[in-house]
Every structure is written in structure tokens, then in C-alpha cells.
Specification:
By secondary structure, this protein is mainly β. Among the domains are: 107 residues, 7 Propeller (Methylamine Dehydrogenase, Chain H), CATH 2.130.10; 131 residues, YVTN repeat-like/Quinoprotein amine dehydrogenase (Methylamine Dehydrogenase, Chain H). It is built from 1 helix and 38 strands. The strands form 10 sheets. It has a 6-stranded mixed sheet with strand order 26-25-31-30-29-28, with no helix packed on it. It has a 4-stranded antiparallel sheet with strand order 4-5-6-7, with no helix packed on it. A 4-stranded antiparallel sheet has the order 8-9-10-11, with no helix packed on it. It is globular. The two termini are 33 Å apart.
């Protein structure tokens, strides 16, 4: 699905043929599929309206108008039959049912980066709340939206919440001014509290491993700390130095080279395909000899939101690898072996890394750097792929298909789909 101003376009994944066109009431600012892919919502925040379209019944549609309360966020519940709208100033969350047309209200949601979290099985929802200058967590049963637990948290200024994939533990972390991570059980019991240091800027990002055995914490001090699920104590910490000296680490460096063209093939005017290949540079990976010095950027001390610390971290689907990015070294991606708890590979790019994401089926990492190239790494090696097309297609974001057979690549104005061929077994 894609939107162009007030039009919603639905395409077939394999052929990109247009299947359906919908016209909304205003410019679409956000779209999201339901969990079963039978419905799609389009949010128009400026007008406080959400429109829902059905794929099975093109004539059916739904309009939700929040009126004077306004709208700042909208999302699906895991069952794909309820829509959660957050009103302006975070006064409340309104739960709309598509089946019964009933409405439920959740008061005092906190305005933070990640204030609503669902368990992976879709049974429970946790909501961060702020009442009387204190932080609270409310846990709801998604089947009937009844309150299951309500408890206060040991945080100064709660910044985000995230369930473990097994749905048994809820991680709650404080804002960057206070290094604190608190873990609660489903019934609201305090399991553990972790603090690495006290005064400098604290937690920047967290990530659960798919097995729920590890919790990775990215901090502003350029380190990743790994907690285990038995004692919730630190197992190890990964540093991100500007110099790589160990010979056990493979360093892949992106290099640009102009392609060589035979003079016999040149003609005037040159063919379009040949002209594009003559004047464009090609990119590939080379293995660097250690020691390697990386491009380190010192953050500006007089500006807010300094670009420092580990802001990206993601586990592979098989729990074997962890990919991280240190914002002080923005053009490098670190791949850690979670079986040995050591750095395995470093990918050194020519441009800052914009987005990285693992294949949902196998240990294969895709990343983009705001250029027209897609980069892939797996334990077998890595490759740089030039996206064909006219003009400058700068990839700023990417997303894997759930099957792992294709990738959606996004630029500011366009998108394309990259199809990967499976090896015959």
C-alpha cells in the first residue's frame, strides 16, 4: 500500500499491478495494515479523521472522526478489529470497535516515545500513564479491554515500554537524563532494576532477542550492555572503539570504482543503458587489513539531542547475531556473535547508515546509506547492489517482506521492490 496526497493505492507484491484505488477526505499522513491484511487504515491527523478500507468488500468503508479532541496517533490492535486513537495533548486513548461499533476510553496516556506496547500473542496491552506527576503502567486484556493491573513505576520520567517476545516481562526505561531500566512481570511485580552509571546521559535504545533470553541496552556512552533472563544481571558489554586492531575481526570496507568500458562499444550519442553505466560509479566491498581507523565524529556540546551513543540495535531472527550502530561512528555497522559474545564483522560504509533490518527468516542483514545502493550481509559474505532506474533513487528506509523473499526500498518520493532469488536445495 502507498499513498499519494489523498489517494490510497494498493498493489500486488509480485507484479506491482494496481489492485485497488481509494480516495480519502484529505492528505493521508499515516497508513497501517491490520494483522490479517483484510483492512487498512488511513489517518489524517490535521482533520482528526481516520478512514478504514476493506480489501474483501471494496464498497465497505468506515470513518472515525475524533472531532474537537483532535488526533496525534492511530494504530491497530493485534486482532485487526479495533483501532486505537490518541487525542491531542494525550488526554486519552479511544478504542473503536469495527465489529460492535462500541467505544472505550483510556485516560492519562503519557506523551513519550513508546507509550503503548502489545504482547506478541496479542492478548495484553501495556499503556504508560502520567498522573499527579508520577509514572504508572496499566495492563489491559485485549479481548474485552478490561483493566488487568495498574501499578506505579520506579522511574523519574518514563520514556518507553516494551514487552519481551514471550509476553512474560515488560521492560520500562527512563529518559536519557536518568540511567534506569526496570523489569516487571505480567502481574505488576518488580523483577529487577538495572543502572549502569549515574550522572551522564543514559539509555538511548533497547532490543529484546527473539528468544527473550537477552536484553540489549544501547547507551549514550557508546556501549551495549547485555542482560540475561535468569538473574537480569549484566552478562557482558560491547564497546565501539574508533580503531579496530584484532585480527580475528573481519572488516568489510565499501569502495567506489568507475566501471571500465571498451572503446569499441562507445558510440555517439551513447545508448541510454551504456551512458548510465559509463558516468555512474559502482560500489563493492573489500576486506581491510587491520588495524583500521574509523571516521569518528565528536558531537557538538552546545546542541540538543547530540548524535552520540548506540541508537540502533537489532537481533537476527535466529538469536545468533546482534547488529549495532554507534552514532559517533555513523558510517559503520557492528555485527556481534551472540554465541561467543564477541565482535565478528564490521561493515565500514562511505555514507552514514540510515536504516538496518534483519531478514525475518534467516541471518541476513540489509542496510541503506541514503544512496542508490542496497547492502546485504550474511555469514557467507556481503554484497553491494545498485538499484536500477532513471534518476537518483536515494534509499532512506527499507522493510523486509515477512517471507524474506523481497525488500521494500523507500526514497523520499518513490519506492521500489527488490526480489531475492532463493537457492535451490
Amino acid at each position: 500500500a502507498s499513498c499519494v496526497q489523498h489517494r490510497l493505492v494498493l498493489r500486488d507484491v509480485s507484479s506491482l499491478q494496481i489492485r485497488q484505488l481509494y480516495t480519502c477526505l484529505d492528505h493521508i499522513q499515516y497508513i497501517e495494515w491490520s494483522s490479517d491484511s483484510l483492512f487498512i487504515l488511513c489517518a489524517m491527523y490535521k482533520r482528526g479523521i481516520v478512514q478504514v478500507w476493506s480489501l474483501e468488500q471494496p464498497d465497505w468503508h468506515c470513518k472515525i472522526d475524533e472531532g474537537s479532541a483532535g488526533l496525534v496517533a492511530s494504530c491497530w490492535s493485534p486482532d485487526g478489529r479495533h483501532i486505537l486513537n490518541t487525542t491531542e495533548f494525550h488526554l486519552r486513548i479511544t478504542v473503536w470497535s469495527l465489529c460492535t461499533k462500541s467505544v472505550s476510553y483510556i485516560k492519562y496516556p503519557k506523551a513519550c516515545q513508546q507509550g503503548v506496547a502489545f504482547t506478541k500473542d496479542g492478548r495484553y496491552m501495556a499503556v504508560a500513564e502520567r498522573r499527579d506527576c508520577k509514572d504508572f503502567i496499566s495492563i489491559f486484556v485485549c479481548s474485552d479491554w478490561q483493566l488487568l493491573r495498574h501499578f506505579d513505576t520506579e522511574t523519574q520520567d518514563l520514556f518507553g515500554i516494551e514487552w519481551a517476545p514471550n509476553g512474560c516481562v515488560l521492560a520500562v526505561w527512563d529518559s536519557c537524563l536518568e540511567y534506569k531500566l526496570v523489569l516487571y512481570s505480567l502481574d505488576g511485580r518488580l523483577l529487577s532494576s538495572y543502572r549502569a552509571y549515574e550522572w551522564p546521559l543514559g539509555i538511548k535504545a533497547i532490543s529484546w532477542s527473539p528468544s527473550s533470553q537477552f536484553l540489549a541496552i544501547g547507551s549514550f556512552d557508546e556501549k551495549v550492555r547485555i542482560l540475561n533472563h535468569v538473574t537480569w544481571k549484566k552478562v557482558t558489554e560491547f564497546e565501539h572503539p574508533a580503531t579496530i586492531a584484532s585480527k580475528k575481526i573481519i572488516v568489510y570496507k565499501e569502495v567506489e570504482k568507475s566501471p571500465s568500458v571498451e572503446t569499441q562499444r562507445l558510440s555517439f550519442p551513447p545508448a541510454r543503458a551504456l551512458a548510465s553505466s559509463v558516468f555512474s560509479t559502482q560500489s563493492k566491498y573489500e576486506i581491510s587489513q587491520v588495524p583500521v581507523s574509523l571516521q569518528y565524529i565528536k558531537p557538538a556540546a552546545d546542541r540538543a539531542n547530540p548524535k552520540m551513543g548506540v541508537g540502533m540495535l537489532a537481533f537476527s531472527a535466529d538469536n545468533c547475531f546482534l547488529a549495532t550502530k554507534n552514532d559517533n561512528i555513523p558510517s559503520s555497522v557492528w555485527v556481534w556473535d551472540m554465541r561467543r559474545l564477541k565482535l565478528l564483522v564490521l561493515l565500514e560504509q562511505l555514507s552514514p547508515v540510515q536504516c538496518l533490518q534483519w531478514d525475518p527468516r534467516q541471518p541476513r542483514l540489509a542496510l541503506c546509506t541514503g544512496t542508490s545502493r542496497l547492502f546485504l550481509w550474511s555469514p557467507a559474505g556481503c554484497v553491494a547492489v545498485q538499484v536500477p532506474g532513471e534518476g537518483d533513487f536515494q534509499i532512506v528506509s527499507l522493510s523486509w517482506h515477512s517471507s524474506g523473499d523481497s525488500l521494500l526500498l523507500l526514497s523520499k518520493d518513490n519506492f521500489c521492490v527488490c526480489y531475492l532469488e532463493r537457492e535451490e536445495v
